[in-house]
Specification:
The chain has 266 residues and is an all-alpha fold. It has one domain. The chain contains 12 helices and no strands. It starts with a helix and ends with a helix. The mean pLDDT is 83.
Length: 266
């Protein structure tokens, strides 16, 4: 899917990619008194709110599970992983516009920019999800060896997000309404995905329509692993995997075909 020349260019500019990731991480907290500690405090606050408010104060319970923290883990499993998807797609759809000056002044493989977006998002996600994993371990809800299933699901999610993000990123250069429209779509998409509610709470016709939502299967796989301690139904992820590959191929094709025109449009 990635040509040898493109891979060679990425490897040759790996210092630029890694340096950009480091600079962006540092810049985010440069003028903050607590600095990078905010990367820990923000997700920690989210986990505490989900646990205390939903599990303790509101007494929310997940159908079919009697665990005290089952609902908060269900929420975190969906919300944290959705946050990764939203960050990659949201930033990818504007990445070429945001770096217009850099694109015009420097010669480098433009595909480095989406890669930088993915790596930055994964750094933030690793910190957040690491805290969530520590919470599960301390609360006695860690799922055990089945936790390893998170990684192939994560790889699938990232491939889907970057494929979609690259398609949107190229289109957004030529049609600036794409970015605005996708922001609205993302809000509806979140609520059409069982994150704050279980799929069983939906009416049967709406529940049947979830098969057309690839993120429902991906988020459901995370929840199956982290809440129920069971291996995901790999077959249910097949449509999302096919769509991810198709979007990555389409994104790369659009990028290669329109790379020259994009410079003129920026």
């Amino acid at each position: 899917m990635i040509s040898r020349a493109m891979f060679s260019g990425l490897w040759r500019y790996r210092g630029f990619v890694l340096g950009s990731v480091k600079r962006e991480f540092q810049a985010r907290y440069r003028n903050s008194l607590l600095g990078a500690a905010w990367t820990v405090l923000n997700p920690l606050a989210m986990i505490v709110v989900y646990t205390v408010i939903f599990s303790q104060v509101m007494g929310s319970r997940l159908q079919g599970s009697s665990g005290t923290f089952a609902y908060s883990i269900y929420l975190c499993a969906g919300a944290l992983t959705w946050g990764l998807f939203a960050e990659i797609t949201g930033r990818s759809q504007s990445v070429f516009i945001d770096h217009a000056n850099l694109i015009k002044k420097m010669q480098f493989p433009r595909v480095c920019l989406p890669i930088i977006v993915v790596l930055n998002a994964l750094v933030n996600f690793a910190i957040i999800f690491g805290l969530f994993t520590a919470f599960m371990a301390l609360s006695g809800t860690f799922p055990g060896w089945v936790y390893l299933a998170v990684f192939p699901v994560l790889a699938l999610q990232v491939a889907f997000a970057i494929g979609l993000g690259m398609v949107l990123g190229v289109l957004n250069v030529f049609f600036r309404d794409v970015g605005q429209f996708f922001g609205i779509v993302l809000q509806f998409w979140f609520w059409f995905t069982p994150i704050v509610y279980p799929a069983s709470a939906l009416p049967a016709p709406v529940r049947a329509a979830l098969v057309y939502n690839p993120m429902a299967a991906v988020i459901g796989a995370y929840q199956q692993v982290l809440v129920n301690g069971q291996w995901p139904a790999w077959g249910s992820l097949l449509p999302a995997a096919v769509l991810a590959l198709a979007l990555c191929a389409l994104g790369l094709r659009l990028f290669r075909k329109r790379a020259g025109e994009m410079v003129d449009e920026l």
